[in-house]
Every structure is written in C-alpha cells, then in structure tokens.
Amino acid sequence: MTLPFDERPVPHIVDNSVWSRIQIGQIRGTALESFTVGGNFLAACAPQLLEALYSTRSPREWESEYATNWEFLDVLHPGVETHAVSVELQRRLWHSGKVRAAGPVDTMIAAIAIRHDAVVVHRDSDYERIAEVAPEFRQVRV
C-alpha cells in the first residue's frame, strides 16, 4: 500500500551551511530534531557530501568526517531529470535578474531536493533566491 502524498515521510537535506555552524556552536544541534518527527528524516546528496568532505585537510580527517557525520544519513540520488531541473533553475534565476544568485552546487542540491520532494534545511541565501523563482522548491532557514 502506498501512503497518500501528504503522509509520506519527508527527507530533509541539511546543507553544509548548517552542519558547519553546528560544529562551531552557532546553531544548536537540537535545531534539527523537529525535522525527524513523524517519520521525516535527515538526508544527504552527493554534491553536498563532496562539498563537505572537500574541506577536510587529510585522509584521516576525511575518514573521520565521513564516519562521524555522513555515513548514517540516507543518500538522495540524482536522477536523469536532475540535469534538466538544475539547468531550468539557473535559467529562471538569470531571466529574473538574479544572475549568479545561487552557485552551481546549491543549484544541484535544490534540483535533487525537488526530485525527491525533499526540504533543504540551510543558513544560505542562495536557497532563498532559488525559492523565489521555483515555487516547487521547499526550503527552510534555521
């Protein structure tokens, strides 16, 4: 049996703008608890994961960061349509005068979120600019 759309668990992609602020104490870790209620869950996607791991300084730190912060998350994979969605998001930004308002990594993360009907949890205005031109994109600033 398939659950009605509004009763399905919602994945929440927690952007690196939030993870990095949690690590330095600017955002409390408990701020994410509300996104795991009612079957909802925290998730990751390849562009976000690669962006986070890119900032590590050694193979040991890479392994530690992955095992501690990423291994436990569900991964939302891009689909064949993700390319078209990300290009369309950038097109909308440009045509609305928001030239370079969102970087390519954030645009790809938004496209993956749209594909999975996920919510991006962030502290990054790029996602707010994307939401201004893409009502189908769900995001929340913490």
From TrEMBL:
InterPro entries the record matches? PIN-like_dom_sf (IPR029060), PIN_dom (IPR002716), Type_II_TA_system_RNase (IPR050556)
Q: What are the required cofactors? A: Mg(2+)
One MF term from GO for this chain?
nuclease activity
Domain PIN, residue spans: 13-132
Q: Does the keyword Hydrolase apply?
A: yes
For this UniProt record, the keywords arranged alphabetically read as follows: Hydrolase, Magnesium, Metal-binding, Nuclease, Toxin-antitoxin system
Q: Is this entry keyworded Mitochondrion?
A: no
* Coiled-coil boundaries: none
Q: Which SUPFAM superfamilies match?
A: PIN domain-like (SSF88723)
Family to which the UniProt record says this protein belongs: Belongs to the PINc/VapC protein family.
Q: What is this protein called?
A: PIN domain-containing protein
